[in-house]
UniProtKB/TrEMBL annotation:
<comment type="similarity">
    <text>Belongs to the ABC-3 integral membrane protein family.</text>
</comment>
<feature type="transmembrane region" description="Helical">
    <location>
        <begin position="254"/>
        <end position="273"/>
    </location>
</feature>
<dbReference type="InterPro" id="IPR037294">
    <property type="entry name" value="ABC_BtuC-like"/>
</dbReference>
<keyword id="KW-1133">Transmembrane helix</keyword>
<feature type="transmembrane region" description="Helical">
    <location>
        <begin position="202"/>
        <end position="222"/>
    </location>
</feature>
<feature type="transmembrane region" description="Helical">
    <location>
        <begin position="33"/>
        <end position="51"/>
    </location>
</feature>
<dbReference type="GO" id="GO:0010043">
    <property type="term" value="P:response to zinc ion"/>
</dbReference>
<dbReference type="GO" id="GO:0055085">
    <property type="term" value="P:transmembrane transport"/>
</dbReference>
<dbReference type="GO" id="GO:0043190">
    <property type="term" value="C:ATP-binding cassette (ABC) transporter complex"/>
</dbReference>
<feature type="transmembrane region" description="Helical">
    <location>
        <begin position="6"/>
        <end position="26"/>
    </location>
</feature>
<keyword id="KW-0812">Transmembrane</keyword>
<feature type="transmembrane region" description="Helical">
    <location>
        <begin position="57"/>
        <end position="75"/>
    </location>
</feature>
<dbReference type="Pfam" id="PF00950">
    <property type="entry name" value="ABC-3"/>
</dbReference>
<dbReference type="InterPro" id="IPR001626">
    <property type="entry name" value="ABC_TroCD"/>
</dbReference>
<feature type="transmembrane region" description="Helical">
    <location>
        <begin position="142"/>
        <end position="161"/>
    </location>
</feature>
<keyword id="KW-1003">Cell membrane</keyword>
<keyword id="KW-0813">Transport</keyword>
Length: 291
């Protein structure tokens, strides 16, 4: 594959991986928790490096998943103790993220790991960081990592589809029939953590938030069916990556930034043209009713 094709494939994998997971978060009204996790996993990455002295993908995934689950646990504990949910997210988010920033300062210049790298990412460098098997170049590491995380997320959603759907729309009934609500909650937090750290090198933590939240919010405006929303959110993530890539090439701007901007453009199109919630649709409907 060509240099540009690898970048495009990486962006599409980020879009579909974060889009599918983010759609569930939007439905569960946990979008800001995704923002918190996408930053606090920096602590997990740094911690994994201190333990293994390596930037390999598997330790990073494990470290990010652990810290992501801790973030959700701490927010839940503060919330249950009487702290408002938004304040709880703010306290945990800033504390764990700041700790990760402090720990990064001990790494120094010995490895390619810094706050700017973790937050902003650089998808243009992805094709150069390749994975080799028996001396054969298998393509960028990020593609394999994102592909593996996408497979895990899809497998978990298929395996626990009924439980995720019930706990999302009717948690009281789910608890009544014996579905482990907290297990599903932390399972989803683990999926978000894996998706976030797998996307770090491609778009960075800040832009992962756009891919986690905006495609799901856009799909929410376009459909009322759960499975359709998941699929549509993944498609919007992919479409955002494609539109963003070609816009970045055309105008010679940041690729990851253009992809994130594309999510916003698609959201505003849906906001105006959505069959049920769109501004223009509502105006036309009201006009027809008056006539």
């Amino acid at each position: 594959m060509s240099y540009g094709a690898w970048i495009l494939l990486t962006g599409c994998l980020v879009g579909i991986t974060c889009g599918i997971t983010g759609a569930i978060l939007v439905l569960r009204k946990m979008a800001m928790l995704a923002d918190a996790i996408s930053h606090t996993v920096l602590l997990g990455i740094v911690g994994a490096f201190f333990v293994t002295q390596s930037l390999n993908g598997l330790p990073m995934l494990i470290g990010a998943a652990v810290v992501g689950l801790l973030t959700a646990l701490f927010v839940q504990l503060l919330d249950s103790s009487g702290v408002q949910s938004d304040a709880a997210i703010g306290v945990v988010f800033t504390s764990l993220f700041a700790l990760g920033v402090v720990l990064i300062s001990f790494v120094g210049d010995s490895v390619h790991l810094d706050v700017q790298h973790a937050l902003m990412g650089e998808i243009a460098f992805i094709p150069w960081e390749t994975f080799e098997l028996n001396g054969m170049n298998m393509g960028p590491k990020a593609v394999w990592l994102l592909g593996a995380v996408l497979f895990i997320n899809v497998a978990l959603i298929m395996l626990f589809y009924k439980e995720i759907k019930l706990t999302t729309f009717d948690p009281q009934y789910a608890a009544l029939i014996g579905i482990p609500i907290m297990f599903i909650h932390y399972l989803l937090m683990g999926m978000v953590s894996l998706s976030t750290v797998a996307s770090f090198d491609a778009v960075g933590a800040i832009l992962v938030v756009a891919m986690l939240i905006v495609p799901g919010a856009t799909a929410y405006l376009l459909t009322d069916r759960f499975i359709v929303m998941l699929l549509l959110s993944g498609f919007i993530g992919v479409l955002s990556a494609v539109l963003g890539y070609f816009s970045a090439v055309l105008f010679n701007v940041s690729i990851a930034g253009a992809m994130a901007c594309a999510t916003g453009v698609l959201f505003f199109f849906a906001l105006f043209l959505s069959p049920k919630y769109g501004f223009l649709t509502k105006k036309l409907r009201n006009k027809m009713l008056k006539t």
